[in-house]
Amino acid sequence: MAANSIQNLRAHYAAALKRFVASSLPFEVLSTEPANARNIEPKVLYVLDSSFNPPTLAHMKIAGSALAESPHSSSRLLLLLATQNADKPSKPASFEDRLVMMTLLAQDLRANLQASRQIAQDDLPQIDIGVTKKPYFVDKATAIEASGVYPSSLEQIHLTGYDTLIRIFNPKYYPPEYNLRPLEPFLTRHRLRVMMRPDDEWGGRKEQEEFLTNLAQGGRESEGAKREWARRIELVEGKKAGEEAVSSTRARQAANSGDERLLLSLVSKNVRDYVVSQGLYKEE
Ligand SMILES: Nc1ncnc2c1ncn2[C@@H]1O[C@H](COP(=O)(O)OP(=O)(O)OP(=O)(O)O)[C@@H](O)[C@H]1O
Ligand SMILES: NC(=O)c1ccc[n+]([C@@H]2O[C@H](COP(=O)(O)O)[C@@H](O)[C@H]2O)c1
């Protein structure tokens, strides 16, 4: 994207964010890729919620692998920036920079899908760039449903990593009773597609698969979970053994130390160029 169109886009997002923050809306779509798209009614909505700080190749893989299973214009992807996180305080970069990088991610995703599947531009899934003030998935899903942006019965498939699945199933997030019953409407109407994240903290593939087996066998019933929820959750392959772990934290560290080669192994070229040209994460 040319430098002046990037600056125009950043200014557009800065103004839209200001309006969103001042409004009482819990969710809003701020733009769509491609910008001039005719509105095609989606039959399935993939949602990738993240702080995109910055968007990494892991985000690309989570969203790209889902779209590759259903690479049609009747699939829609929503890249959703969480302006309030359940656990982490807000850090640089600014939200408008993250929205610009989300747009670059959306363009890269569509370009990769077109190249790998030989799909015509008009038949590719459209990608919405949205924002939400809601930190919990149950509330994000309700806010999306209530917005009227999509057909009311549309099934949402939330794309997450395994670490996030574990946190969704942690009763500490659900006062006042601190059990898992608040997940009922979410897992009745919607689904989770979870990318495994094998590492020291979250265990290997086998341990991650056991989470679903345990849920299906009623192992979480005492906390208010239903065994049939296991059928609403799909675990998919993440990084292979021996592959480097990719995270936004590592990308910020690479940018901070000026290691552009390492940065390029963690984010796409377009995102790397934006991070470097704007001097993002230098202050961290
Ligand atoms: N390498 C990865 N493998 C599997 N899932 C991932 C990976 N990186 C991110 N995700 C998932 O993508 C979603 C958004 O991730 P998030 O923005 O927290 O990325 P992160 O790299 O963990 O961020 P940070 O390093 O800033 O904590 C979460 O559901 C997270 O589990
Ligand atoms: N119980 C929940 O729904 C729950 C728990 C932890 C994090 N989250 C959300 O998951 C997303 C990713 O979180 P992190 O950036 O902390 O990995 C954020 O939007 C965060 O607010 C949701």
Describe this structure as you would to a colleague.
Helices cover 41% and strands 16% of the residues. The protein is α/β, with parallel strands linked by helices. α2 (57-69) links the parallel β2 (44-50) and β3. α1 (3-22) packs across α3. The longest helix is centred in the middle third of the chain and has 23 residues, at 95-117. The two termini are 27 Å apart. The relative contact order is 0.15. The model has no long low-confidence stretch (mean pLDDT 93). Adenosine-5'-triphosphate (ATP) is lined by residues 50-51, 53, 56, 58-59, 62, 160-161, 163-164, 195, 197, 238, 246-249. Pathway: Cofactor biosynthesis; NAD(+) biosynthesis.
Question: What keywords describe this structure?
Answer:
16% strand; ATP hydrolysis activity; Rossmann fold; globular; 284 residues; 10 helices; nicotinamide-nucleotide adenylyltransferase activity; NAD; Cyt_trans-like; binds adenosine-5'-triphosphate; 2 domains; ATP-binding
Protein topology:
Layout: H1 3-22, E1 27-33, E2 44-50, H2 57-69, E3 75-82, H3 95-117, E4 126-132, H4 137-147, E5 155-161, H5 162-168, H6 184-189, E6 191-195, H7 205-216, E7 233-236, H8 248-256, H9 260-264, H10 269-278
Parallel strand pairs: 2-3, 2-5, 3-4, 5-6, 6-7
Antiparallel strand pairs: 1-4
The structure holds adenosine-5'-triphosphate and beta-nicotinamide ribose monophosphate.
Adenosine-5'-triphosphate (ATP) is lined by residues 50-51, 53, 56, 58-59, 62, 160-161, 163-164, 195, 197, 238, 246-249.
Organism: Rasamsonia emersonii (strain ATCC 16479 / CBS 393.64 / IMI 116815)
Catalytic activity: beta-nicotinamide D-ribonucleotide + ATP + H(+) = diphosphate + NAD(+)
Pfam family, one: CTP_transf_like
